[in-house]
Specification:
about 140 residues, seven-stranded mixed beta sheet, globular
Length: about 140
């Protein structure tokens, strides 16, 4: 398996593969679909994917915010590829990219079930549990310096 990190733009073939993966892994199990408003947010964002040849196996999105803070969102790893370190590989690549752009903090709204994954990457929870897409989440962040 030759895994490659790719950064791609909105509305490209890679974007549509990532959107399909996000929908399959993050939304469908919750009985949800993306709204046009949610997808509109993707236009200005930075899209990352891990590809095995032409097949996407993991993806995430970076959103620039204020005060040198970058938000990581929509992290998805193909169900049959989980537990192989692909999420870690992609997250670390995204952190490196954000650091090169001068961002000092990476943060995300992590599903409660994903908190141990982010803690293993050096993130810590900020604040109390909250509900997003009908399931418990925590804000988590990590200094990139």
């Amino acid at each position: 398996m030759e895994i490659q990190v790719k950064i791609f733009s909105y509305n490209t073939p890679e974007y549509h593969k990532a959107l399909n993966l996000r929908n399959r892994v993050l939304r469908k199990p919750l009985g949800l679909t993306f709204t046009p408003e949610e997808l509109k947010k993707d236009e200005e964002d930075i899209h990352f994917g891990l590809f095995d040849d032409e097949t996407i196996v993991a993806c995430l999105i970076l959103t620039r915010t204020e005060n040198r803070r970058m938000k990581m969102r929509q992290v998805a790893v193909d169900d049959n590829q989980q537990g192989k370190g692909l999420g870690k590989t992609l997250s670390l690549a995204a952190e490196k990219y954000a650091r090169q752009l001068g961002f000092g903090v990476m943060f995300c709204n992590a599903r409660k079930t994903a908190v141990p994954f982010y803690q293993a990457l050096g993130y810590h929870t900020v604040g109390d549990e909250f509900t997003e897409v009908n399931i418990p989440h925590y804000m988590m962040e990590k200094a990139l310096v």
